[in-house]
Amino acid sequence: MTRVALITGAASGIGRACAAKFAQQNIKVVIVDFQADQGQQVAQELQGFFVQADLTQPEDCRQAIDKTVEQYGQLDILVNNAGFQHIDTVADFPEETWHKMIALMLNAPFLLTKYAWYYLIKSGQGRIVNIGSVHSLTASPFKVGYVTAKHGLVGLTKVVALEGGEHGLTCNLVCPSYVRTPLVEKQILDQSRTLGIAPEEVEEKVFGGKTVIKDKRLFEPEDVANYVAFLCSPEAWGITGAMQVMDMAWTAH
Ligand code: NAD
Asked: What's in the keyword line of the UniProt record (predicted)?
């Protein structure tokens, strides 16, 4: 039977690549994002369904699930991917940004999991993939909101895996190092300006400082999508509750 996947933040970057990979595998895709034009366009390209939602709002999380089920009658795969970055010291970190980050990157994955639970169990081979980061496992200064939210996903992933197992539901946390997406390209340009060095040098020295694969410092979104697709395949039936680290040995140091 055809499966249905809901991917948050799928108008861009990693989420978009995951949606494209699923569509190639004839999985029906639901693109959830707050960017309407881009989200519609991706949905159209992939013959999927678009739901505009601001996932910092619990009601929008609820509606994303309801509209998916109204459209397709089922939900088999949930990819909690939407996120953003903010760089500041703990002392200067704006409270509003903190609340928004936790709402989007920790509360929304919990709420979407909760609201989707019945359908994922009914699927019999439900899959949840949370998109974490190396910052789910390690920390960097000036990223307090991001690091905290991404660490929180470790706990969510483990509990969901423990409770879902008896229903065939798996839940994993994919933890990539830097991936070439608009989120990171903006950071490269910002750091290039701040440090007064070329973007290529930022990529090599700042972003690639801890990775070890020769000539490769950043992943492409498709690299993450391939891994996510595997975790959602029937072959990955026993892989659950785990941190799926893809970081070119960053955290091996
Ligand atoms: P991106 O900026 O390309 O995409 C993020 C998407 O989330 C955008 O389409 C944006 O519109 C959407 N979004 C933001 N706020 C939203 C909201 N309130 N409601 C609904 N949608 C919203 O970023 P990306 O690099 O593809 O990041 C995707 C995920 O991957 C994030 O969780 C990020 O933390 C994680 N990640 C990224 C990297 C990297 O290096 N790019 C590395 C590790 C983890």
From this structure: Oxidoreductase
